[in-house]
Design goal:
The chain is an all-alpha fold. It has two domains: about 20-145, Rna Polymerase Sigma Factor, Chain: A (Orthogonal Bundle); about 145-194, Orthogonal Bundle (Arc Repressor Mutant, subunit A), CATH 1.10.10.10. It is about 70% helix and about 0% strand. It is built from nine helices and no strands. It has helices spanning about 20-30, 35-55, 60-75, 85-105, 110-120, 125-145, 150-160, 165-170, 175-190. The longest helix is centred in the N-terminal third of the chain and has 23 residues, at about 35-55. The protein is elongated. The relative contact order is 0.11.
């Protein structure tokens, strides 16, 4: 099932922040806790493998890249931020490994496989769509941290393209309240820019 790149899915969690359990897991990982690493590995390895296999259509490469993703996660554990989505970070690492692999395939004369991979990556000739799909989960993880009313206003403004006046009318609130909520949401989102 394809997700529209601009469609923000309703977050699964009703909480406004990343779960306390995930924060604790990240803190433990940063401290070098192998049990925490094992828990994260078990949670994400299947998803990472499916992702890389779908793009590369090669089980061996999917195995290698999946392992490399978690090695990189371990190496970079000191830089993790428990306020940010670990899943989005893991899939960003995986995406970079896939791109590096396709470049190697081209350099080693595997043009057919590399071309097929790039076509899969491009999915209707749009690298922006690919990046948008990767970013959808990342954006959801950021937006879920906003209070529900602020998140709703942000989505109506930035993703649905409604004016402040239209949002105020739809929600039955003052236009100044919409402006204030958007200002606060924008400041919050800016903290997560790469």
């Amino acid at each position: 099932m394809k997700t529209s790149p601009l469609a923000i899915q309703t977050p699964i969690s009703s909480e406004n922040t990343i779960s306390a359990a995930e924060k604790l897991l990240v803190k433990r990982l940063k401290a070098g806790d192998m049990d925490a690493f094992e828990l994260l590995y078990q949670k994400y390895i299947g998803k990472v493998w499916n992702f890389t296999h779908t793009l590369l259509q090669d089980k061996s490469l999917a195995d290698d890249i999946s392992q490399n993703v978690f090695m990189k996660l371990w190496e970079k554990r000191d830089y993790l931020n428990e306020e940010r989505s670990l899943g989005a970070y893991i899939f960003t690492i995986a995406k970079h490994f896939v791109f590096k692999q396709t470049e190697k395939m081209v350099l080693h004369g595997k043009y057919i496989a590399a071309t097929q991979t790039r076509l899969t990556l491009l999915d209707n000739s749009s690298i922006e769509e690919l990046d948008a799909r990767f970013m959808t989960d990342y954006i959801n993880d950021i937006l879920v941290q906003l209070p529900a009313s602020r998140r709703e206003i942000f989505v109506m403004s930035k993703l649905q393209g409604l004016s402040n006046k239209e949002i105020a009318q739809k929600l039955g609130i003052a236009e100044k309240t919409v402006e204030t909520q958007l200002y606060r949401a924008n400041n919050f989102v800016k903290k997560f820019k790469r």
